[in-house]
Predict the structure.
Amino acid sequence: MSNEKKQWDPSQLRKYDISLEQIPRYDYCDPRVDEIMDENVRQKPVIIQNSNVVASAKKWNLDYLEKYMGNGDYTVFLSRNHKFKYYDDKKVAKINNGDMGKNVEFTQPTKKVDMKLPEFLKRLYLQQGLNNTVGPEIVRDFLNFDWDFCNGKQTKHNWGPLTYNLLLIAMEGNVTPCHYDEQQNLFAQIYGYKRCILFPPSQFECLYPYPVYHPHDRQSMVDFDRPDYSKFPKFKEAKGYEAVIGPGDVLYIPIYWWHHIESLMRGGHTITVNFWYKDGPNSSISYPLKDYQKVAIMRNIEKMLQDVLKDPREVGPLLRTMVLGRFT
Ligand SMILES: O=C(O)C(=O)C[C@H](CCCc1ccccc1)C(=O)O
Ligand SMILES: [Zn+2]
């Protein structure tokens, strides 16, 4: 790292009050990559270096994409600030047609619009599934990704099917706030630098996810820029992992791991393609259960209670009645 020209400067990272340690980096052919990814052993994040996963996209930059992305419409998110908090449209609809009672409302933090790429110059974040709306050159580059490598990981770690490749084009400084996904993720950085902060599923109680019925399901309620320690006292105990990834790096984000992603300030646009895989069939339940399986169990309990109680304000009190003083 010493002789390489530093591609970024710590002043480009946002300042958070969180204890963080570095995510390890290994060459793609280093056996430690699979040891770390192995779900029976550790299933921890790791940065896979010098693979050819997206080598065919090395030439991608905004001009190239603008030239070859065709003039299709792309899904772009607009935000009033640097944060792009994801929300589930279907859950917004349920609230708006009163499924959660009439006292629950939701204001969308970002606006989702379809627009042509050339309009994409303001405070925007393009997040588009790679499909046939893109031009033939982009399709060719996509087909030339190193699929053997990805399929190899899918097989070796018995993941389920590939569900999605999201093309992410972010403006400098954009932040995707901390959330988890229910998919395995090979996060391939193509252009520019992104800082990633990850937490294991065991830190559920430090990160205070929204209720499952909420449009921000799976997102942390803690605002990392201004944490409210009176509402979220355990956030002080959160211990994370971080890394800055650049072109050619592939970050493995294990299923259910929390992640906060930011495009470096004053670093220009960033381009990423992710590879989301469903989790594999649980060959057999083995004890003790993994932390992420406990998160899945909590999600199912919340869903059942929500379905049967209807009013989300009754879920908390019923759980408190059931637990407080009884399961000490
Ligand atoms: O690849 C991942 O999982 C990320 O979180 C990458 C993230 C954008 C993802 C937006 C999003 C979040 C939740 C649901 C659907 C879409 C970024 O790179 O800014
Ligand atoms: Zn995610």
Remarks:
- The chain has a mean pLDDT of 92.
- The pocket of 3-(3-phenylpropyl)-2-oxoglutarate (ligand 1) is lined by residues 86, 127, 168, 176, 179, 181, 185, 187, 259, 261, 272, 274 (CB under 6 Å).
